[in-house]
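Bug #2210: token dump truncated for SYN3 protein?
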Amino acid sequence: HTTAAMNFLRRRLSDSSFVANLPNGYMMDLQRPDNSTSSPVSPAMERKHPQPPQPLHSSSAGTSIFSSISSAMKQTTQAAAGLIDHSTSPTPVAQKPKILLVIDDAHTDWAKYFQGKKVNGEFDIRVEQAEFSELNLAAYVTGGCMVDMQVMRNGTKVVRSFKPDFVLVRQHAYSMALGEDFRSLIIGLQYGGVHTVNSLYSIYNFCSKPWVFSQLIKIFNSLGPEKFPLVEQTFFPSHKQMVS
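Reproduced locally. Full output below:
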């Protein structure tokens, strides 16, 4: 059958009228080296399933469409990036407020002076105000300082526990009156590493008036009595020595 088919093709291809009616490129397809393994589509099949015509666009129209797509993709990418940055930002919109502990009596309302203020333009300030006598605390090496507060506000007892971020001291931490020695609270704030507006060193030093006066004596000796005069005083370790 193969020999008969080949003889038939030779007779047909020798016919000039038959070859003239063949599609363009058909003879080239038959002469390809791999035509024995390929299955070329017949002219009838090509006419039955024509290739869809390719649309012709001007270069300006194509550039315009591509530019529009690129612009849309860029906007979408930027929007997505904005959403990602917003959700993973280290400084989100609603930050936890910083707690400022003000140690002072109730005659001054310190909350109104910090209302609407922000730390570094990011953190709100929450003011907790109490006197030394209304405070207790516990300080840790790595856990900071936990303050317990019990105050009376408009006849209501308010009890809170919190970790202050800053402390502003407006009261004397020591007095010779009974129950007026709060130096242990100053030590606790220092132990817990709490940041203070006024130095805890100075507050603790000012708990002892003779200690403060000794610092003034150093300035007196450095500048002289004309530039830095002092009222002459005498120090005794106890009242017994004063009597003797």
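Output looks complete on our side. The mean pLDDT is 77. Marking as cannot-reproduce; reopen if the truncation happens again.
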